[in-house]
Amino acid sequence: MDRSNIQHKYNHFLRNALFKYKFCKRDIFLKIYKRVPKQRDATFSYCIDFLINRPNIQIAELGTSRSFVDGKIKEGVCINDTIYWKPESPDKWDWSAGLFSRYFSEVLKSRGKNDFKITSIDICEKAIAISKKINENFIDHIEYKTCTSEEYIRNQPRKSLDLLYLDTGDMNEKTAQLHKREAELLIKYQIIKDDGIILIDDVRNPSMILNHKEQSKYGKSKYSIPLLFNNGYTIIIDEYQMILKKKINYHKALEKVKKKDKKRFGKLKQIN
Ligand SMILES: C[S@@+](CC[C@H](N)C(=O)[O-])C[C@H]1O[C@@H](n2cnc3c(N)ncnc32)[C@H](O)[C@@H]1O
């Protein structure tokens, strides 16, 4: 695929961001998962390639960017003071959190896309203000909503999203419960297009296992992924993040073809 320079540059930051943390060293990944899963650069790029030829792309991000600087920089983390925002120094940005809206808006634009909209949702006003600053040059493509992820899902039109990014909360049981409720609502309200995808962050983040003695290897997605899997979704990418898409219901698809054939046959009969 034709990646732009900016995509290469940001991929480099994403590829290395998490290994700098104590709980995300390569040997820890190997010990827990028996492999070092590909990082966000791989799954973000997969999503960009998936989106690039689609018209009028609709994306939603649950949980927006909340810090001007990366957690490993001691000063300024999650503080809404623009003194900490260094637009010319991307090496200082919060790549450990992903910077989804910045990555997707800038990379899609750099690859010639203009017909896309990202809706970024957060419960916290401060996070929204920080994210707006980070994305100030791409604001035409981003709509912000201050509400809970659950409210957003309930009010979104059916089958309207090409890509939904699940990234609310932190690495703990409370967030696992929140993701469970989000998954239940996604199943009920069906806001993703039949050929759309769900991207889930931090599935294979070792900190749930190391800090909270969690048994499941799916971390904060331990309830949501099985729920989605048992209700019409299948896993297509299984790395640090996971990507899910709707299973094709062959029985339903066959019924549709049969119906169409019946209509055609009916018409032919009339002509004869
Ligand atoms: C890890 S950050 C998101 C990082 C961001 N997606 C990025 O790529 O940089 C998680 C965010 O989820 C938000 N959050 C937590 N609970 C939420 C809820 N119930 N509804 C909406 N947002 C929530 C937090 O305020 C926080 O800003």
Fraction in beta strands? 15-25%
CATH superfamily: Vaccinia Virus protein VP39
The count of domains is: 1
Q: Which structural class should the secondary elements be placed in?
A: alpha/beta
What low-confidence regions span 5 or more consecutive residues with pLDDT below 50? Answer: none
What's the story with the biggest beta sheet? Answer: 7 strands, mixed
How many helical elements? Answer: 10
Distance, first to last CA: 51 Å
In what order do the strands lie side by side in the largest sheet?
3-2-1-4-5-7-6
Which overall shape is indicated by the principal axes computed on the Cα atoms? globular
Describe the 3D structure.
This protein has ten helices and seven strands. It has helices at residues 5-17, 26-33, 40-51, 100-110, 125-134, 149-155, 173-189, 207-212, 224-229, 250-271; strands spanning 57-62, 116-122, 142-146, 161-166, 192-200, 233-238, 242-246. S-adenosylmethionine binds at residues 61, 63-66, 97-100, 121-124, 127, 148-149, 167-169, 178.
What's this model, at a glance?
41% of the residues lie in helices and 16% in strands.
